[in-house]
Structure formats: C-alpha cells, structure tokens
Design goal:
Its EC number is 4.6.1.16. Keywords: Endonuclease, Hydrolase, Lyase, Nuclease, tRNA processing. By secondary structure, the chain is α+β, with helices and mostly antiparallel strands. The chain is 27% helix and 27% strand. Among the domains are: 124 residues, tRNA intron endonuclease, N-terminal domain (MutS, DNA mismatch repair protein, domain I), CATH 3.40.1170; 79 residues, MutS, DNA mismatch repair protein, domain I (3-Layer(aba) Sandwich). A ten-stranded mixed sheet has the order 6-7-8-10-11-21-20-18-17-16, sandwiched between helices. A five-stranded mixed sheet has the order 3-4-2-1-5.
Length: 339
C-alpha cells in the first residue's frame, strides 16, 4: 500500500480504515474505507512494514521531508509500551483536549473511540526552551541528544499541611544585615513553630534564636516581633532585590496553608517544606521542595531535569511557585513519570 502526502496529511487507500484505525487506533476516518494519518503515524507504519511507502518515499525520506524525527521517537516508544495515541491535530480524535500537546495518549486497553485520555504529551528536544506558563496538566517527553527519552508529569498543586500556628507577641528582636536575632521567647518560636535556628547550634537547648529575613518579616507582620515589617523587607531587598518580595509571598502562603517552610539551600531550592508538624522534637522528613520563579520564567530542559532528579533522589516532590510582582501564586508540581 502506498500513501499520498498532501497538505500535511498522508492519505491511505483501500481497506486502510479497517486495518489501521478500527483495530489499532491510527489516523482519522474520512468516510468509506480510506484513512488519513499524520506523517508521524505513517512513519510508524513504514517502520513496521505495514505500508510500502508514501509518494514513493521510505522512512528516511519521509522523516526528513516532514521534520517528524523527534515526534517519531516518542510515538514509537509509547506504541511499544502498549498505548494507543493520536496526534493532537485539528480534526483528529480528542483534539478538543489537545491544547499545548503533541499527542493524546489513551489508557492501556483503550483507544480514540473510547473518549478517555490518560496523558497529554508534549515533545521537547534537549535544547529547547520551555516557558513555565505552558506547563501544567501535560507530560513533557524530552528527547536528549542521544535519542533517549525522559518523561516529566506536570500538574497543578495545592500545598496543605497540619501545622497549628501559636505565635507570641512583641518579642524583642535585633535586625542584622541578613538575619534577625531573638533572645527571649525562643522555645515557643522554635519548638512549636520551627521558626529559625538556635545560634548555639542545632542541638542546643538554650541561647538566642537566629531568624532568616523571611521569617522575621513574616513574624513582624503578625506582630510576633517588636520590629517594623517594612524595615525587615527593606533589608531583604538590599540582600536579594525584588526577588525577596516574591519569596516572602511564597513563604507566607506556605505558612497560611499550615505547612512549615525552611531553607532549601542544601537541596538547591528556595524551601524545603514540612506538611505534618507538631514540634521540633517530633520532626519528620520534609515532603517537598519549592523553587520560586516568575510567571514568565523559561526552563532549560537540563535544569528542569536536575531539579526533579535531585528532589526524587531525596524522596521529595519538586514544586515551582510561579509568583508575580503582586504576590499571586500558581503552584506547579513536576515529577518523573514512567508511562
């Protein structure tokens, strides 16, 4: 069987609908027995010797002419894993769910005729830029320079915890260049709220408490410290510019969601976050990492992979807080996926 390429679509004649769509989920029926398939689908049929060619072209020529090599790598991998999938093209099955995707992948054992989509997949090369605003409810299929595939699931996230907040009032605090010191009321802040770190060391049970500027600003806003929030914020902007405001918005939102955010420096992130907390004495492991980014942030796939790999290596979820200048936050979770 020879296909015909016209206007970006490969037309297959004869009994193609019965052979390829009705039994195996390829293409879109056009009425009768003929079938239209996307170039990547035709390439897959060529690779299987299910069709003889397209306008006399073999697989090599078709991939070069249509520029579908990366799509083919992903399409073949998912087919080999036992999935039926459709190109996310206008007029193709499931196209109403296709925004931001290249393929619609159906649950195993189901096809385009069932109307149920398992994954919306977007194909990305290793060196492409990925606007963070384009992510969420889509699976990234990243093809590296060796042709290997890594899948990342991206979805919205809602931080939620169980920490109860019990703050003191008007504690005396000393504002320093990049932190604040509290000398009295330390146990209540540290043990029951996990604010700060003891100046004498993690295992010390006495002495002053050192607070980050984020913690100091949050506590000053809540009147827990007898210092002016504006002074702390001004100091924070001196240290890290306008980014301090975005990080403070995220810190406050995490506390408002009854979670406990702490520095994520050791993990290369802005925060490590505890969702279940009663006291420092009963501290469990943090559950997720947060990196604060602007809504117009653009990822490089390699950097995204590093963040997710590091979080997975320490058994934590990687969450990005898309925070604008007004403090509005959208939460995005990214994790490795094995389809």
């Amino acid at each position: 069987m020879q296909g015909r390429l016209e206007d970006g679509v490969v037309h297959l004649p004869g009994d193609a609908r019965q052979r390829f769509h009705d039994s195996r989920g390829y293409g879109r029926p056009t009425g009768g027995d003929d079938l239209e398939v996307a170039p990547v689908e035709a390439a897959h049929l060529l690779s299987r010797d299910d069709i003889d060619g397209v306008d006399g072209m073999g697989l090599r020529e078709l991939l070069a002419r249509t520029g579908t090599t990366l799509d083919f790598v992903v399409y073949k991998d998912l087919r080999d894993r036992g999935f039926y999938l459709s190109p996310a093209r206008e007029g193709w099955p499931g196209a109403t769910d296709a925004a931001g995707a290249d393929f619609l992948v159906y649950p195993r054992g189901k096809g385009p005729w069932d109307g149920e989509v398992e994954h919306r997949v977007r194909v990305v090369g290793e060196r492409e830029s990925i606007p963070v605003s384009s992510l969420g409810e889509v699976v990234l299929a990243i093809v590296d320079e060796d042709g290997d595939l890594t899948y990342f699931d991206t979805e919205g996230y809602a931080p939620e915890g169980t920490a109860a907040e019990d703050l003191p009032a008007d504690l005396d605090a000393e504002l320093l260049s990049d932190r604040a010191l509290v000398w009295d009321g330390v146990d209540r802040l540290y043990q029951r709220g996990f604010f700060g770190q003891r100046l004498y060391g993690r295992n010390a049970d006495s002495g002053p408490l050192q607070l980050s500027l984020l913690e100091a600003a949050y506590l000053a806003r809540a009147d827990a410290l007898a210092i002016d929030e504006a002074d702390v914020v001004s100091r924070g902007r001196d240290v890290e510019g306008d980014r301090f405001d975005r990080r403070l918005a995220v810190y406050a939102a995490l506390r408002g969601a009854k979670t406990v955010p702490k520095s994520g420096f050791k993990f290369g992130s802005d925060f490590r976050v505890y969702t279940e907390f009663e006291s420092v004495s009963d501290l469990s492991h943090s559950e997720f990492l947060v990196r604060v980014v602007a809504p117009d942030h653009t990822f490089v796939p390699r950097d995204l992979s590093l963040d997710v790999r590091l979080a997975g290596g320490v058994r934590k979820r990687m969450v990005f807080a898309l925070t604008d200048d007004n403090g509005e936050i959208d939460w995005l979770s990214v994790s490795r996926l094995t389809p």
